[in-house]
Design brief:
The protein is of the alpha+beta class. The protein has one domain. It is 39% helix and 13% strand. It has 9 helices and 6 strands; from the N terminus they run H-H-E-E-E-H-E-E-H-H-H-H-H-E-H. A 4-stranded antiparallel beta sheet has the order 1-3-5-4. Strands 2-6 form a two-stranded parallel sheet. A hairpin with a 4-residue loop joins strand 4 and strand 5. Helix 5 runs antiparallel to helix 6. The longest helix has 28 residues.
Length: 231
């Protein structure tokens, strides 16, 4: 299939781990952008992993247009010291890469869980600002938008402080963090989420096969009843 089947944003809300943990594991953002799905602080479908880690989700597809085959992506990620292991879900269409948080950023992992983003080290802030995983095209953000807001979160920017005061209609003491802390259930990949993803991707794949068959029939490349499966 030449058409990439992806998850809609309502099934795949971007986690805070995507912005504040995933960039710390050393994956080149250029090689993952376009196939990135999401990042989680843990997943029910993978065995227990010792120490701080993050689960990176990617689409298992070839990206020959950019010269970035799936094999090249795999080689790049598995060669990192932070690589722990892999697993596939959703009919093998999504790959899970379990990556350890480098020891130098263990403090950031603790700060992340508390929502104290402004206390990140300078090195961690730079990584998160420059190497965020989000695919801007997929989520219709202006280029650099997520990077800019991350910078504002790190420095507790006044514009975000004002935004939250207006949104919550209350006065917020100066010096407070300007972004909410992560909610554990939103940052974990659960079996319920896997079932939802599986259903969407399998349904979408079935529809695509049907559309492809109907197109071939209409072009008189194939004969037969519309709706027959195409291998």
């Amino acid at each position: 299939m030449s058409k990439l089947i992806t998850l809609p944003i309502d099934l795949n809300p971007i986690t805070k781990a995507t912005y504040f943990l995933a960039p710390l594991v050393g994956i080149d953002s250029a090689i993952i952008r376009g196939r990135f799905v999401n990042a989680y602080v843990g997943a029910e479908v993978v065995p227990d992993v010792k120490g701080p880690h993050v689960v990176i989700m990617v689409y298992n597809y070839q990206d020959r247009k950019r010269g970035l085959t799936y094999e090249k992506f795999v080689d790049s990620v598995t060669s990192l010291d932070t690589f722990v292991g892999t697993a596939d879900i959703c009919c093998d269409r999504i790959g899970m890469y379990i990556m350890s948080i480098p020891e130098q950023y263990h403090e950031e992992f603790i700060l992340f869980r508390k929502g104290r983003y402004s206390e990140y080290s300078l090195g961690a802030k730079i990584l998160c600002s420059k190497n965020y995983m989000l695919n801007n095209d997929m989520y219709k953000l202006k280029p650099g938008a997520s990077s800019n807001i991350i910078d504002k979160i790190f420095r507790k920017d006044d514009t975000l402080h004002t935004y939250w005061e207006k949104r919550l209609q209350m006065s917020i003491p100066r010096g407070q963090e300007v972004w909410s802390k992560p909610v554990k259930k939103d940052e974990l990949f659960t079996s319920i989420r896997e079932v939802e993803w599986e259903k969407h991707l399998c349904d979408a794949f079935t529809r695509l096969k049907k559309e492809r068959y109907e197109t071939l029939v209409n072009k008189k490349v194939l004969g037969g009843e519309t709706g027959e499966p195409v291998d």
